[in-house]
Design a protein that fits this description.
The complex is a heterodimer. By secondary structure, chain A is mainly beta. Chain A has helices spanning 2-5, 56-61, 126-129, 221-224, and strands at residues 17-20, 24-29, 35-38, 42-53, 73-84, 90-104, 108-112, 116-120, 135-148, 153-156, 164-166, 171-174, 179-184, 200-205, 209-212. Chain A has a single domain (15-216), classed as Mitochondrial biogenesis AIM24 (Double-stranded beta-helix, 4-Layer Sandwich). Helix content of chain A is 8%, strand content 46%. In chain A, the strands form 2 sheets. In chain A, strands 1, 2, 3, 4, 5, 6, 7, 8, 9, 10, 12 and 15 form a 12-stranded antiparallel beta sheet that branches. In chain A, strands 11-14-13 form a 3-stranded antiparallel beta sheet, with no helix packed on it. Chain A is globular. Chain B has 2 domains: 3-187, sav2460 like domains (Lipoxygenase-1, Sandwich), CATH 2.60.60; 343-535, Mitochondrial biogenesis AIM24 (Double-stranded beta-helix). The radius of gyration of chain B is 25 Å and the shape is globular. Chain B starts with a strand and ends in a 5-residue tail after the last strand. By secondary structure, chain B is mostly beta strands. The chains are: A mainly beta, B mainly beta. At the A-B interface, β1, β6, β9, β10 and β11 of A face α6, β16 and β17 of B. β11 of chain A pairs antiparallel with β16 of chain B, so a sheet runs across the interface.
């Protein structure tokens, strides 16, 4: 039995964050290197790791998050190996090198505690899409893991003179320096049927990238569970 | 995920992969058997008019090196590299064959396959095993053939004689008894031949805008503005003379550089290990090494890779060496200059500037678009209303017109672009994602007791254009035989020439086992050989 399962044993740690398969993230935790992860995303851990849901620091930064509920982030500290997953979504590990990335709130899986981060609201847009309402802007040098339902695609926004329009339900992440605005592209008649479909898009312009997932399922599964 | 071909399946190479630089791997083995695997470059009359295009262990490459024998690697018994756009015009077919060397017959072979790998991803696999053969001593596994465009066919046809007979069949002559035992290992050129004066295509060229991404080149949009990431690539590869980033890329003009290997101390090591080619490797990005086992975009472990943003093992922990661009490189947009381009299994890009006609797509399937594209409501029309009234769910379409690129996806389901050239296909209405407006379509209704909603609705497409079909999971494509059945909920599409009959096997079962059997209604398909059905592993 062990032989068949041996192929799934963890590979030796070589980096702070690594993929284990498509949809699991392995984080090498060490004292002093805190991690923020989505609450409820932990699937396994090895070693001594402690979790602090909704820590004061998060509460402060995320004070403008939706009233009432706490921020869906937990602070992980300790030594060991931490495995995170979000209901089988693909995990993409990004090693920021003095870059910044704005990630849709439901697509954040984990990021290094020392990164600069903040919560933003996309102006007047997200609420139409019934979205998670918030996105996290992360910058600095360190590791970030984002999730995507299906293999994502990365598009250069600064290509051509035209803007890039994205269905808000499929949006995963984008460069924060892009200009964002809302666009309504459908006539009222087309709203019958799939109301949340293509009625609104987010228009990006400028130099940077946009990451999109091949699915319009943006429900926050980790959140629903609570 | 690779497409699984059955014997007789054919597909355009361009539908499988945008690249033309392909790796063909053959695995064939049997107890006590040894095989000669070779490639015949045939002319329009299927004759081997030029001996130099018989690629085998004694002649490991064609004169212009468009076909090269690589030897055993990555689990393949034998492997080839084929650069289709450099194959001379008089070669119309590349036939890959395996012949038993010595005693034995094909029925003794174990499970084997022929596969095509492009850009590190396996795109097609045709698996076979000995039970398909009998006393044959040779088998034609698969063909690349030129019919307007290059296509691939899974042949799997046995051949009675050995290699000599095969050669004679192709009009070649055996000058001498097939020279024995020149170990293929020795003859096979490694992927990094140390001093190769001949034109070596710049594998792993920097991500310069190219009409068609060549092997190892990470897919990149034809971006006029070089992004920082491109500069990053230019740095390490500058030692190897290659096409400068930014220019349109002509076929590489004889760079002495071995396959774009950045000048690194690894080089000599490659010469010694011809069976582990790792070309196309540029630091700071993550192209899956050519000939490596199929996908898993992450989790690949090309040795010597710098620690990338992918968290690839093989490097020193940590250190900010990757950056955002490098981490996201594997997910870059692919541009091929074709109207329909699969970006990955789940995303399809349609370029409306090409072709001129609009595209009809399911409402809600657009995830992103660039450029000036108009989306308008497309009334379902009479046919659509018929579907809607009967099944309660109207097929809502939108018309995309204008100038720009539209990215389509739905619920992460797998997408397959099926190009029709005058032939017809029936697709279950709920599996249609998008199609060219130039296609004619009509709704066909299959009635039968027990089908949910009273009938199964399918859209029959005809004409010239592309239909994008979505499936949950990797589908299976079955040839239509006298006994082909499919669950009416799982069947996705079938060639329109086959005839559908609702079978009521349920009755029999119900007699045998009182109570309700799991399976409700099956569809039986009948048709001439050549017809096929597509079934998904998911019952809607």
């Amino acid at each position: 039995m062990n032989q068949q399962l041996a192929g799934y044993a963890p590979t030796p740690v070589t980096a702070r964050m690594e993929n284990h398969g498509h949809s699991m993230l392995k984080v090498a935790m060490a004292t002093g290197q805190d991690l923020y992860a989505r609450t409820g995303s932990m699937v396994a851990y090895e070693g001594f790791i402690q979790y602090e849901p909704n820590p004061p620091a998060v509460r402060q930064i995320a004070s403008q998050w939706i009233t009432g509920e706490g921020a869906p982030l937990m602070k992980c500290t300790g030594d060991g190996l931490l495995y995170l997953a979000d209901y089988g979504a693909d995990v993409v590990v990004v090693n920021l090198n003095n870059d910044s990335l704005s990630v849709n709130g439901t697509n954040v899986l984990a990021f290094d505690g020392h990164l600069t981060w903040g919560v933003e609201r996309v102006k007047g847009l997200a609420k139409f899409a019934g979205q998670g309402l918030w996105n996290v802007c992360i910058s600095g040098t360190g590791w970030v893991a984002i999730t995507s339902r299906g293999t994502p695609i990365v598009v250069d926004c600064g290509r051509g003179e035209d803007e890039t329009y994205v269905d808000p339900d499929a949006l995963v992440a984008w460069s924060p320096n892009l200009k964002v605005k809302g666009k309504r592209s459908f006539k009222a008649s087309s709203l019958i049927g799939r109301g949340s479909g293509e009625a609104f898009q987010m228009a990006f312009s400028g130099q940077g990238i946009v990451v999109v997932q091949p699915s319009e399922d943006s429900t926050d599964r980790l959140r629903v569970r609570h | 995920m690779a497409r699984e071909f059955q014997r007789g399946h054919k597909a355009k190479i361009s539908d499988l992969t945008p690249g033309t630089d392909l790796y063909v791997g053959v695995q064939i083995a049997g107890p006590g058997l040894s095989f000669d695997i070779s490639c015949f470059g045939l002319d329009a009359n299927e004759q081997l008019s030029d001996d130099r295009y018989f690629i085998f262990f004694n002649q490991p490459k064609s004169p212009e090196e468009s076909i090269q024998l690589l030897g055993a690697q990555s689990g393949d018994t034998e492997s080839f590299r084929v650069t289709l756009d450099r194959v001379p015009a008089n070669i119309h077919k590349l036939s890959f064959t395996a012949t038993v060397d010595g005693a034995g017959q094909m029925s003794q072979v174990g499970p084997g396959y022929i596969r095509i790998v492009a850009g590190g991803d396996e795109v097609v696999r045709y698996a076979f095993n000995g039970s398909e053969f009998s006393t044959e001593r040779a088998v034609m596994l698969g063909d690349f053939y030129l019919k307007d465009v290059w296509r691939f066919a899974a042949v799997g046809q046995g051949f009675d004689g050995g290699l000599e007979a095969l050669l004679k069949n192709f009009g070649g002559e055996v000058a001498e008894e097939t020279p024995a035992a020149a170990p293929p290992q020795a003859a096979a050129p490694s992927f990094a031949p140390p001093a190769q004066a001949a034109p070596a295509p710049s594998f792993g060229a920097p991500a310069a805008p190219q009409p068609a991404p060549s092997f190892g080149t990470p897919p990149s949009a034809p971006a006029p503005a070089p992004t920082p990431q491109q500069q990053m690539h230019a740095a390490p590869t500058i030692i190897a003379p290659m096409t400068p980033p930014g220019g349109t890329v002509p076929p590489p003009p004889a760079p002495p550089a071995p396959y774009g290997q950045p000048a690194q101390p690894q080089q000599p090591q490659f010469g010694q290990q011809p069976h582990q080619p790792q070309f196309g490797q540029v630091p700071g990005q993550a192209p899956a090494p050519y000939g490596q086992q199929p996908p898993s975009p992450y989790g690949q472990q090309p040795p010597g890779m710098p620690p990338g943003g992918q968290g690839m093992p093989g490097g020193v922990p940590q250190a900010a060496g990757a950056g955002l661009q490098a981490a996201l490189q594997p997910y870059k947009e692919t541009a091929t200059g074709q109207r329909w381009t699969p970006q990955n299994q789940q995303l399809m890009r349609v370029d409306l500037t090409m072709g001129g006609t609009g595209v009809l797509a399911r409402q809600g399937s657009m995830v992103m678009y660039q450029g000036k594209v108009d989306f308008s409501y497309k009334g379902a029309g009479f046919a659509g209303r018929m579907v809607g009234n009967a099944t309660g769910q109207e097929m809502q379409l939108m018309r995309c017109t204008g100038r720009g690129q539209v990215f389509l996806a739905e619920e992460g389901s797998h997408l397959h672009a099926i190009e029709l050239q005058g032939d017809g296909i029936c697709v279950s209405a709920e599996n249609v994602l998008a199609f060219d407006e130039s296609l004619q379509y009509e709704v066909r209704r299959i009635e039968g007791h027990g089908i949910p909603g009273g009938a199964l609705f399918t859209m029959q497409f005809q004409g010239t254009g592309t239909v994008v079909v979505k499936t949950h999971g990797t589908p299976v494509v079955l040839p239509v035989t006298p006994t082909t059945f499919a669950d009416c909920n799982a069947v996705v599409a079938w060639s329109s020439a086959s005839q559908v009959i609702v079978s009521s096997q349920v009755r029999l079962r119900r007699n045998a086992y009182p109570g309700h059997s799991g399976e409700t209604v099956n569809l039986q398909f009948r048709g001439a050989p050549g017809n096929f059905i597509v079934v998904q592993p998911y019952e809607v």
